[in-house]
Amino acid sequence: MTTLAPGAVSLPPPVPPALRADHRGSWVPTPAMIATRFMELRRRRGLMIALVLVNIGIPSLFLIVRLLAHAFAPKSYGPAGGYQIYSNLAAGVMFIFGFIIAATLGCTAGSVDLTEGMFRHLVVTGRSRLSLYLARIPAGLAIVVPLVAAGFTIVCLVCVFAAPTKINYDGDNVPANLSLTGFRTWAGEHPDHVICDFPYQGNIAVAVQCGPNGPVSVGPNGSGVIVRGKSPAGTSSPPHVSAAAVKALAEQIAVQDYADYKTQFLYPSNTLMIQTGLWLELEAVIGFIVGLGLASLLGQRTVSVILMFVLEIILTPLLSTAHIPHLINLQRAVVGLATAHLEPSALPLPFGGGGGPGGHAANLVPESTLVAVLVIVAWLVGWSALGAWRMMTRDA
Known about the structure:
Layout: H1 31-42, H2 45-72, H3 83-115, H4 119-123, H5 129-134, H6 136-161, E1 166-169, E2 172-175, H7 180-189, H8 191-197, E3 216-217, E4 227-228, H9 243-262, H10 270-298, H11 302-321, H12 328-332, H13 335-341, H14 369-393
Helix pairs in contact: 1-6, 2-3, 2-6, 3-6, 3-10, 3-11, 6-10, 7-9, 8-9, 10-11, 10-14, 11-13, 13-14
């Protein structure tokens, strides 16, 4: 009989292995599994360098060149920042590059175990295949989201701190960030520029000298279109009136054009930058999750990356802007069209086209915001389900 020493603590007998709780079959990925997936992706140095160069290096190089060009030749090259540069980079560069890096990383995460022969070793551990798949989503997003945020932050900083002090509006240098009252005041002080150069829908009742081409006159049949030069046949030149009437007309034109002027402010507002950042992150999340599911379904990275590029660069622009009556519902099911409908209205169309409030939406296949959200959710859930199903049914 074994006796315990005074003060010793009696330990309970060990639990037999057969009776221990085994959580390896749970479909919920553990933090350790997510951390392991994150490390596996991050240690692929070639891939990480390529992603950083595409998403951060290219926009940074473009902005550095513009900064240097403006510093050495300010009369020939405009400022590196401002609203125009911001909108073009956000909708035309960051939108595409963010999707490219996300899709590439997603396709890598979905096929790396198969291409490197590690899938069998993961299966024999007894871990749930579903949890192995789901662990890749937060691990990949932990890389994609900061990359997109870093590149977009650089664009915002340069566009704000290197913005021009004036904007060129219809050929005239106009102070930026003016309120409606300030814009009217400026127009009243420069009536010749406003009446001669600014767009206006209405009858011109005054005559103002517009350079060597003569006074402004009404269009045929009093259409109200500003015509530079002599009056066309069959019309009469408007009478000369007082300076007060000229100023009043200039202010009236300024009020009509203020909505368009607001889209060309000195630099983007904080609200617009926040909305654009969230929109770009959404596009990156879609690219990663769809790429992950596609690569898991096909079991190949190269083919999956090519298909993702074709979807984003060729099919999405075509199906989003071409109105095909018999395929309209199929077009609305394209995730790129749904994402474009959620774009901030002050930005130009990602696939080409005009900007301004609501301007880009007119070029897209019509779709409600609710339908756009449902399409995005369906793509995220559907491709995740397909990728997980293929991983669970694949032979080890």
